[in-house]
Queue: 4 jobs
Job 1
Amino acid sequence: MSLAANDVHQNQIQFALERGIPAYLGVLGTKRLPYPSRSFELAHCSRFRIDWLQRKGILLLELDRVLRPGGYFAYSSPEAYAQDEEDLRIWRAMSALVERMCWKIAAKRNQTVIWVKPLTNDCSMQREPGTYPPMCKSDDDPDAVWGVPMEACITPYSSLSMLEEINIGSGHALSIQSEIRRARGSGLAPWPARLTTHPRLADLGYFDEMFVKDMEVWQRRVENYWNLLGQHIESDTVRNLMDMKGNLGSFAAALNNKNVRVMNVVPEDGPKTLKIIYESGLIGTVHNWYVKNFFSTCPRIYDLLHAWTVFSDIERKDCSIVDLLIEMDRILRRKGFIIVHDKRSIVELIKKYFGALPRESVATAESQLDSEQDEDDVVFIIQKKMWLTSEGLKESE
């Protein structure tokens, strides 16, 4: 996931997104990043001039929250080289802070240093009483991210086997991983087996049977979607996809054999499944579609938006379907697609707004693919037209 500030780096993010690289506009400020704890194996910051020491190092502690045990922070900056007194001062202060956080240097060369996060909390627990930064309070939820202020504390690990939260790259870490595996059993599977293997499902409130069934349902649904899209999809034109209601990530997992990237969006007030999505090796974020919130991205970026029961959720909350359609239009690329999978009444309501939006219907089909599904469900696929201000609506040649 590429992250850049939306005040000075919008163009860079747009370049990343148009290359098919997942990216998100955001800032390391006062609120937590929109990712659950232990989501990433590696964080990278190159010459970004972030003041990592501000507010008692709270930004480094936020990185600690989102890194897995054994995860890495690759930092490339003049401070790591320490050629003058100011750089040397910053380097000494950062080194002292990460040492108290129990991070170790895995490698250092020229202007780049790579720190590694410890596999357990043993080091943190053995520090002198009163050492800063403290451990986070036991009632702090490290996975709560929507509008939650950052905390200047070390996020404790759970009591689960550390290997279940590790996906280490190579080198010295592999021997550590092998030792833990022999002692405690297997953990996260390598990619792409991670898509279907989750040792911690039960701890997150789900069970293998539920997960397998969900995967099977979405395999069938995605196959149906692609059959309906058929000739409308040109070769290599659909790259950036968004699942607006990511759930367990099964829509994205079903597309693993296609050359696409899927941004899984988990509703802020829905089931907290984003951790499962990241453990699958997929990416995503939290968002609230129910109010007039812009999604943190540039205009005209996504090639396909998948809206499964999203509009029904909007209607139940008595919020504006029109507002959501306008936001979807903003982030959808010209000639991009929207897949609406919802009740027939919702689909008919959406069709009423076609006269004001540059879109056309591609396909409509009954959607009776599994016994769990409402008999009234319909799949409705829309394509955005090419719209030119000088000529009005116009089909692209």
Job 2
Amino acid sequence: MFKSIMQWLAFIGLAFFITACSQEAPTKPMVVVEGATMGTYYRVKVVTEAITDVASFQAELDKRLELVNDQMSTYRPQSELSLFNQAQQSHTVSPDTIKVVQQGIELAQLTQGALDITLGPLVNLWGFGPDAKPKQMPTAEQIAARKAITGVEHLTIDGLTLHKAIPELYVDLSSIAKGYGVDVLADYIESMGEHNYLVDIGGELKMKGHNDKDLAWRIAVEKPVTTERAIQQVITPGDNAVATSGDYRNYYEENGERFSHMINPSTGMPIKHKLVSVTVIDKSSMISDGLATALMVMGPEQGFAFATEQQLAVYMIEKTASGFTPRYTEQFKPYLLTEAK
């Protein structure tokens, strides 16, 4: 029988805003709103005097997040994405859903399948999706059967219509939809003329400008341990998005063997390598979200080589005999907070 290892910490992000990074007192007013969305929390901070009706501001944020869920949630049976998954061949959706699906296809092609938005049947088989937890490890035959109904090559877009080449194709945007939600809220805040903010949905972050102490926003990359929140590295991402993916909180154990929730599309099996955390900085939260997942699937060597080749700002933590060893690309180096800063 599988033993599920899912700490309460699994519901909070692997990178987080540092609330007490300075002893200096705030110099500017800041609006803070918090709520729930996509099975996790959201938190928005805007340094401003212009937002006087906080309740109305939060209502606008909630409206936009609800729309994303109604479009792309696999847990809502009447969402656009669920209706497509239930369809035999095609379903017409909104431009927003098309945008995210198109980005998923492009990331799948860029990463040579390491990110696969059609992986849902395999994720569910291993008990990390809407399906019930498995009572025993999936067989090779079960894995092969699920692999046969996955692959973005079976998914096409024609205008606002999604098409599937096989009826069983199931699209799951969870690897990029949360990042997309961050981008949606950031765009709305920008449209209000605000340029000093931080948006956080379950640890997927996007920020711009300065905090209420007139300092650059500081973000902590978490140390990959399950028992407590500890800081591995502090970064100052500037006007960018930050996404961190890891496999050290949500997993199973069976006879002492560990089964990660990160599934390798090429094998249909949970990843087995020693890479435990990947942080990506990009202008788009949706892209950084997807790339962090893809790099986790690739593993330490292939992932770092890919990040270097693509000139991505990436920070990796690998489990070694001596503990946890970080390494990062040249593009990530400017964001590291050092004593000199």
Job 3
Amino acid sequence: MNWRALFWRLHRWVGLACAAVFLVVALTGTALLIEPQINLKGAVRLDDPATSLAGVETALGRLAVDYPHHQPGLILPGSTSQRSWQVGLRPASGEGPALSAEFDPGSGRVLRVDKAETSLRDVLLKLHNSLFLGVTGKLVVLAMALGVICLTITGVAMMRRRWKALTSSPLAPPLRARSLHHWTGLVGGLFIVLWASTGFMLLVYKSLPEFGVGSTVKARSAPASEAAPETQAVQPTAPQASLSQMVEAALALHPGGEVQALSRSPHGVMVIVLNRDAAPWRKSTTVAFDAAGAHVPAREPPGFMKVMIAAKALHTGLWERSWLHAVYVLFSLTPIAVVVTGPWLWLRRRRPARNKAERSTRRIPSA
């Protein structure tokens, strides 16, 4: 059996089937890597939590008065300058629109309140994860991820003169789609497989309830940054210890850490700390405090939870140092080049065959 011919046929038809979805996912993935740098969103380092977070409780109190039928969720840093943080507000009855409020954590001034999931990042995530098609779209994206892994394996397996293709400049004149396709496929192959496999894992994990799997599995193993709503959807009451003191204590337990998110309830406070220098499965850690401000010892996270934390760290690159994030952005261009040049090569290969068949037909004399 000619394995190379089999790989070639599989590569062409799987690539054609995945091309449109892969292009959308590749473009939105690149945009999601760039968007936090534009809006300066992400975890932040707090040199003085008592000053930086002095107004968080004030802002939550004002929101509780203005929106009494909504309950606060995660509190997320909104900028590296700590001037704009945000908190999600969910309807207590489960009916009605969810809201997202921005506030100044230093003064407690509420800046604006909008409908949730209307930001650029939310739109990109919906398109990236489900193509705006709900469960059907997620299934399509999952199938595409498996197809991309198949394409990378078959493409590298059947390629000849890999070293020459890798060391030759794809932009050297005359510019050829084939050389560009081979070069970007080889250079970005490792990242493409990494993104496809970790993205598949994360999407399956987040979609377990929608796919008919009990939500208890997800609740037990959810990463700290995605705590179950039952632990957050409660109206906050003033704890005996201030929130800033608990944040300061959490950062003291993890020197060099950054505040990734906060969650407050009548039972206490959860501080999610990001450590960029830690191993991928330990980058995000939850530090819990009771209502009196006493530290609650954390249990060792289960293995599945560590895998999910590592998958998210490796998939996004947003939890890494800036230089590695720049590498992610640079290599995110390779899937776009691959998915554009691939169909082009497929069409060029079929056009000569079609023209040859037409010429042969014209040569046959009519009866």
Job 4
Amino acid sequence: MANQSNKQPSQHEVQPLLNLLNSGQLANAANMAKSLLGRYPNTFILHNVLGIALDGLGQYEGAINSYRSALKLQPNMPDLHFNLGIAFSNVGQVSEAAASYRKAIAIQPKFFEAYGNLGTLLQKQGKLEEAVANYRKALSINPQDARGHFNLGTALRDQGKLEEAIKSYRQAIAVFPNYADAHSNLGETLRDQGNMQEAVSSYQDALALNPKHQSANYNMAEFLYLAKRFDEAIPYFERSQLDDWQERSMYCLYKAERFDAFKTKLDQIVKSGPHTAPFLATLSTHYAINFGVEDPYNFCKNGFDFVYRAAIPELSAPNSALLKALLNDIDNAAIAERVQGMLHNGQQSAGNLFKRPEASFNALAELVKKEFRNYHQQFAGADCELIKSFPEELEFTSSWYVKMRQGGHLDAHIHEIGWISGAVYLAMPSDKQSPEEGAFEYGVHGDHYPQKHHNFPVGAVMPNVGEIVLFPSSLFHRTIPFTSSEERICIAFDLRPSGVSATRSHY
């Protein structure tokens, strides 16, 4: 029996299997591999081919089993460990995937693709320092890997290191000039710096290479609508089919005062699906108040009822160590500034603050998550999608600090890609000429939306140091200017259901 189980297929039997695999006939290759394994159960190449075929068919669990069987027969195959890592990653087994990539590297130290994939895995976990280190190691082995330069750029941008990210994207383009994704991401990062002329040029470069490129179309549309060229923006949004393109198109119709077209599309959307787009909720509520009709969109019809305020004991206690650490890291960490036009006499950080390595930011992120859970509990049972479809996994799509000095304020705006938005207050001016200076004001009108009247309600909160304010992302909000020479410092953030892009938060 032992001799029978170790019997190997002939080249004549294996070659048709390889032909099927190489010609992309994966289902047929998988079936033939299974048939041959019935006769030759201890044949490495059959397990390996079956794994590759199942992987290509999206049957990742089966691929994992096949790769594992192949590794029992030949445990020192770096490519096999690498493929196993990809399969593990596809089913969300992160630690197993990382272990497989590291095993591939241990066997073949110059396996730059394994370093790159490990970096991507670490980046998705928010371990940006480790991700960057792996990307740099991969590039030290193969500096001509355009994808490696691109991935490094994405991690550096998440860290708020915009100049370094731009260099990485440019290097990716130097290696592969037709890299449309790199041109588009370069444009986004230049936009973050406030360099709109070069940003638009990069978007146009991406679209010249791929007219259907989703991000480049979206970014170009965003530029046009910020320039109030609403009718020009709509076709780009429609070509992008990306993220909140439909809401953005609706925004353009509304801002262009094409109210009939707006209402027709709104009615179609209301009938066709769940009311889970905060940006569309903003538009629907504004239209309803503007024209004195019932708001048909049930994301959160009365956002004022869902504004939440609480003290965070770890920050509001006298001589809070965490508060001191946060203020110190804001002052001293190497975080680039993000330029945006709605902030006056102030500074906003780039990148995603809660993905940075500083212990203070990580500690605050966990405290904020606790408050999100309290928020959900407080409003449990509310008959609106804000609460009924509340994110099960708490993912910060964006987080940043805002430092304002005398005269500082933010214009009324919304966080278009948020679900719940909020801020934690670390410093507030106390020397004020009027009580409302520096307050957080919220409402249903802003951004120069067209008004038929001025009866749009507003509310306000005067937060204390150490307090958190949470609110539906559909609400407009602004900072009331203050005259004090003291700084006003907060850390703001957005929460959104997992899997939604995090690259489009502006304020």
